[in-house]
Design goal:
globular; alpha/beta; 8 helices; 3-stranded mixed β-sheet; 7-stranded mixed β-sheet; Rossmann fold
């Protein structure tokens, strides 16, 4: 049976009920290690924006690094509903806001982020330039942005971002953004590329008996950037 491919909004409406707020597969573990290595070690006094926050995975990591002013934006209302669990675990002085919005049209004022995070979401928007332009608008000059996506080698190998819901397997529509696209889009948006990581799977993360493409152990599975907002 062919796996239906859904646009992000209906896909995450189905997926949200079972989508945890932590890395839950080997690829996500590899991506998360790279993201955390490129994020600032301490975030006290920083306003942190998580664009495409989903169920709140990187908002939790930001809180663990001392952030108390956080904003999460996601296209999916059901995923944001999962992220509200953050309020139960947040320190008493935390100010957390969650808002529904598109990555290319964030409901945030100019220059409002000291740190902007985006994990595995930019591929849901075909126009990478529009997303990075919006990230640059929201970031203050000098701000750090840490952004990840699925590595384009996965698309070349035919891998899909799929999930199971209500007894059916689905795939989420996803655009492939090559490094050359990132380089050009960052230059147009006024973002400097400070660091790039291409993490690979750790065999220790793969559960016994798992079915997967063995070449996945030989190629990078994510593309992770640390960017800096240049002064206007």
């Amino acid at each position: 049976m062919e796996t239906p491919t859904l646009d992000p909004a209906p896909a995450y409406a189905l997926w949200a009920a079972s989508y945890p707020a932590y890395a839950h597969n080997p690829l996500m573990h590899a991506e998360e290690r790279a993201m955390l290595a490129l994020m600032p070690g301490r975030l006290e006094g920083q306003q942190v924006v998580d664009a495409g926050c989903g169920s709140g995975r990187y908002l939790r990591h930001a809180m663990a690094r001392g952030a108390t002013t956080l904003v999460g934006v996601d296209l999916s209302g059901p995923m944001l509903a999962r992220a509200t669990a953050l309020f139960d675990d947040a320190p008493s002085d935390a100010r957390i806001a969650l808002a529904q919005g598109d990555l290319a049209a964030l409901p945030l004022p100019d220059g409002s982020a000291d740190v902007l995070l985006c994990g595995l979401a930019v591929g849901h928007v075909p126009d990478l330039g529009a997303v990075l332009h919006e990230f640059a608008r929201v970031a203050r000059p000098g701000a750090t942005l840490v952004v990840s996506d699925f590595h384009p080698v996965g698309a070349a190998l035919g891998w899909r971002r799929d999930f199971r819901a209500e007894g059916q397997r689905y795939a989420v529509r996803h655009a492939t953004h090559y490094y050359s696209h990132w380089h050009a889009a960052c230059a147009r948006a006024g973002l400097a590329i400070d660091a790039v990581a291409e993490p690979m799977l750790d065999p220790a993360d793969i559960p016994p008996g798992a079915h997967f493409d063995p070449i996945a152990l030989e190629v990078p599975v994510a593309l992770v950037f640390r960017l800096r907002r240049l002064a206007s």
